Amino acid sequence: MGYRVVDVDSVDPEPDRPCECRKLSDPGGLDAAAINRFRAAPGEQLPLAYHAHETQEEAFYVLDGTLAVETPDRTYEVPADDLFVVDPGSPQRAYNPADADEPVTVLAIGAPPVSGDAVPYDPDDE
Q1: Ranges of Basic and acidic residues compositional bias (predicted)?
Q2: Looking at the domain assignment, is residue 1 inside a domain?
Q3: CA-to-CA dists, residue 56 to 13, 65, 97, angstroms
Q4: Which domain does 21 fall in, by range?
Q5: CATH number of the domain within which 83 lies
Q6: Residue 54 burial (CB count, 10 A)
């Protein structure tokens, strides 16, 4: 058996991100999923770019605030305590709108925990 408690605020934020991103998989000893906590001020986006994952499923659980997720078909508004799920191959860009009244805090889970499978998406190419 194994158990771990991770003080999320003790995990250093990732450098060069558009918002605060704390990668929690390694401190938590997770091998089967990637887990990150994002905190975005108004006008900040979560990912580095509008993208899709080739094999990874993603789930965004909104802890507080309201997350906006742009997709090719529409922009979703995801309030606190709701979950937004993205299938592999589905382009998305998650962000906190510039006119938001507060930051948004999101727990993002991806499985499998792959790196390098994100494919940039440009809506103008449609």
Answers
A1: 14-23
A2: no
A3: 22, 25, 25
A4: 17-105
A5: 2.60.120.10
A6: 11
